[in-house]
Amino acid sequence: xxxxxxxSKWLSDHTSFFVIxxxxxxxxxxxxxxxxxxxxxxxxxxxxxxxMGLTLSTxxxxxxxxxxxxxxxxxxxxxxxxxxxxxxxxxxxxLPNEIAVGLILVGCCxxxxxxxxxxxxxxxxxxxxxxxxxxxxxxxxxxTPMMVLLLAGTRIEVDAAAMLFSIxxxxxxxxxxxxxxxxxxxxxxxxxxxxxxxxxxSVIGLALIVGGVIALQGSNxxxxxxxxxLAVFLxxxxxxxxxYGVGMLTKMSTxxxxxxxxxxxxxxxxxxxxxxxxxxxxxxxxxxxxxxxCVWHSISGTILAGWFARKDAKKAERxxxxxxxxxxxxxxxxxxx
Length: 337
Description:
The chain is an all-alpha fold. The protein is built from 15 helices and no strands. It has helices at residues 2-13, 15-28, 38-55, 58-66, 68-92, 97-107, 114-121, 126-152, 160-185, 189-217, 221-249, 254-265, 269-279, 284-319, 325-332. InterPro entries: BilAc:Na_symport/Acr3, Bilac:Na_transpt, Na+/solute_symporter_sf.
């Protein structure tokens, strides 16, 4: 079990590296992950969401109740900024329909699970991050199909009801089961050991979903890869900036501003990839755009969290020039209030 815990921690710390490695290997050996499609892909997504449920407790829902304004602002930013930003970019860049649909789908999905880790690494407000992710995930069965229908309905046929049931099956039910198990067994040592292993399993699951898309569509990547990456890069980066701007407008603390920036900018692109493969099979480039988002969001989130952390350390060193460098860095690790 100790080896499994160490492996899980390594995978969590090197998510972007592992996902990219799987994507590259799959590009040259597509048969390795050609089985990750259909029900298998939905099952893997369910395992990822189950791992999120295992981290939820009744305390998290008390946070939602105690901080309604913060959560409302966060949820509103999540489901207004990213969907309409994706629509705006698709229009401004004259994206092909398939890529536009994929970008819009990513924008309409809830916050990504790894955003909580990034908020912790950048000395953000972790309870706020968990609350935002939980709220946006619980709203996703309604908000995601509705926003996709509104913004992409003229580009492709959208079965909102089928999408709703897919999200219930692969997201809400696994999260609920994990939450129930954590509620009743959360204090048991064996259960806590399992909790520490699940993040690594989630990273493997995310890599498998990306690998499955690359296996099916990788040969087409270079046809529109530059366009896809440009769209994903702008969508993600502007999401961080606009999320931080919302925090500034609502006079949030530095920790909260960092958190809402990461929560808004990082989407559950794994869910988007699954939905694209399940409901937009006639538009394969949509799934490719979602898979690229999976990879890039992990990379950019790590970069942004690290930049915030280094900024804190340098500030601490300037304020205490007589202190050793190590002490300044340690002070920089103190969570901002």
